[in-house]
Specification:
four-stranded antiparallel beta sheet, alpha/beta
């Protein structure tokens, strides 16, 4: 792999505006700025429509920014892609259903001047056992892993993943990330867009939060949690005890049936109050989650929709 000093990814004030049928343009990405070091693993986290996919498309040279600058390894994204230094696993793009898994990987392998080899790529992606199966007979998760094998072929310096585990069950997702951990251990930079919190928390060293096309926070998971502060206390609440929002130190309340989850800066004090002065029971105390941080920093739900792409 190339070891020059340029960062793996640089976005500097990048915006992308699309025309719309209604005449009002859509700002899919707005003044996005971040830099990824070589060998870094980062998650681009946000709800559907936050601008994650458009950001990745700009990095892959699929779109030119309306304004700002995008670079991979110190050069225009298209040049790094053509040189085989970048590989991607995207939501869009299909596979030929009548080809076998091996035929598919072999075909794409023939397009590169050099690769890690068909067998090695299939082994790393966890599809060696289905090499003779036709693509049309593969499940959605298996097809995603075939795409992963294709991304591994050129032994890239950067892998870009857009919702990579869509269509996978829990077991397949676990196997996928095990394979990706192995790839990252070789020094590959990994940038993946996801709305699965567990993937961002367990795999990424760093999380970049996007909302409505903008980067609203960027840092290690624990740093983002610290920016929000507090803990969550959940418990079964008896309405006869009054309005839970009036309890000391409560700053946010979420309700699921009779069970409430509240955020507080003094979880110990609130727990003592609940246990000694109310009929609340089945208490649980936990640290602020990444989802809490996301909501507090953006005001968005991770499943919300917006006009961004």
């Amino acid at each position: 792999m190339n070891t020059t000093a340029a960062p793996a990814v640089v976005l500097d004030g990048v915006s992308k505006r699309f025309a719309s049928r209604g005449g009002k343009p859509v700002d899919a990405v707005a003044d996005a700025t971040f830099t990824l070091r070589r060998g870094e693993i980062a998650a681009l986290l946000g709800p559907n429509g936050a601008g994650k996919t458009t950001t990745l498309d700009i990095l892959l040279g699929q779109y030119a920014p309306t304004s700002g600058t995008a670079e991979l390894f110190g050069e225009a994204p298209g040049r790094s892609v053509k040189a085989g230094r970048v590989a991607a696993l995207l939501q869009t793009g299909g596979l030929l259903p009548d080809y076998t898994v091996r035929e598919t990987v072999s075909l794409i392998s023939s397009l590169y001047p050099s690769t890690i080899g068909v067998d090695d790529a299939m082994e790393r992606a966890g599809i060696a056992e289905i090499a003779g199966r036709r693509i049309g007979k593969c499940s959605g998760g298996q097809q995603q892993r075939v795409k992963f094998a294709l991304a591994l072929l050129p032994d890239p310096d950067l892998i870009v993943l857009d919702e990579p585990t869509t269509g996978m069950d829990v077991s397949a997702r676990r196997e996928f990330w095990t394979a990706m951990h192995e790839q990252a251990s070789h020094g590959t930079t990994v940038l993946f867009a996801t709305h699965y919190l567990d993937e961002a928390e367990s795999f990424a060293e760093r999380v970049i939060l996007m909302s409505r096309g903008r980067v609203v926070a960027d840092g290690a998971t624990h740093e983002l949690r610290e920016r929000v502060g507090g803990r969550r206390v959940s418990f079964v609440w008896d309405p006869a005890d009054g309005d839970v929002r009036a309890l000391p130190g409560v700053t946010d309340v979420q309700e699921t049936g009779s069970r409430l989850s509240v955020r507080t800066e003094d979880s110990d004090g609130l727990a003592r109050h609940l246990l000694t002065r109310t009929r609340a029971h089945d208490l649980e105390v936990r640290s602020t989650s990444l989802e809490d941080a996301f909501f507090q920093l953006t005001g968005d739900s991770l499943t919300s929709e917006s006009e961004a792409i």
